Amino acid sequence: MSGASGSPYAPHTDDETAAMLSAIGADDEEALFDIPDDVAFDGAFGIEPRTEREIRAECSRIFARNDDLVEFLGRGHYGHYVPSVVDHLSDRAEFLTSYTQYQPEIAQGFLQALFEYQSMLVELTGLPVANCSMYDAATALGEAATLADRVRSASGDVVLVPEHLREGKREVLENYCAGADLTVEAYPMADGNADVDALSSRVGDDVVMVYAETPTVRGCVEERLAAIGDIAADGDALFALGSDVVSLAVLEEPASVGADVVVGEAGALGLPTAYGMGLGIFACSDEFLRQVPGRLVGASEDADGDRAFTLTLQTREQHIRKERATSNICTNQAWVALRAAIHAATLGPDGLADLANDCVREAAALAERIDGLKGAVAPVHDRHHLREFAVRVDQPAAPIAEDLEAEGFAVHVIDEHLLQVCVTDLNAGRADDLVAAFEEVI
Known about the structure:
- The protein is built from 13 helices and 17 strands.
């Protein structure tokens, strides 16, 4: 329908619905769903009505049961201070009520914001194409593997990943690879970084993608990325590099070390630490433009010759490309990308680099102080670190972590004698207290 009095939403008529049900042999629409009786809605929620004030009081009581811990946790989930301007701008109604920007004529503001977000990723990675549509780092990695399978001339089906890789990320990758008949294998690490010699010996015709991370899951800055890129190129395998938007502000530009695809997390900006909610990075070279999963926002011109923005090359869209779609990802994370873009713009290039440099300095300083304690060695790996580092303790690690939790601090347990500590601008002010707690419990 169109016109001032019309509705943009045109539902099926009763005759159309009846024709469709008849075609598939169903008596009614309820027959299309198999909902168990114990969870089916019976017309009443059974929830006692309460006022807003009563509900807020109840929520406060529930939240008060949570442990009041200072988190020194990381391993892919990072919290940085989010300026209030991010909330104020992203909470505007025109952003909150916008879903997928299929109608560019009424979504120019949001489309421009997403175009700016993509442009920031292009500048940080050095790669010419970036999208705004990945759930998180793990799904972005899975999409990189399936892209490699589509575009590489190598006949292989093996995706190589670091031995040190966050468990959940590998599990998501394996789910993606199972559907594409790919196999995930790990290459060894040497003192926290990739064992480049072992990797070189392993890469052959059966490898379709090599994945590396910087920083690694243990916070180590990967030192031989160019060599890894050369190994992948020599084997005709795609080189995928994992990182995050803050780290990329000070580390080697991925394009300069031969990365074909960059994946990772952008949610380090604009979001509090959620341990679940994220925003995936996906950037790549021009040759993969039509293979990019998710959505791309492009700049064009309207009928009057003015600059305009629109969704373009929607290669993932099942309703457009059907069986030729590159991905079945069904969101564009637009509002989260908007928040990341606002946060990055607020910091500016210098502020973003300062934040990343603080992550290097704070980690080094905290590791040095913990290393001075009897019964602890930090950092375990003789590398440069960003945000986080491993700590070797003489006593069993799990009981120490439990004792630290009793003192009000949360850290990761890696194995029997390894802990991991992550420091950012949010918890750096409690570093003295953490060191004192470490000294007491070890």
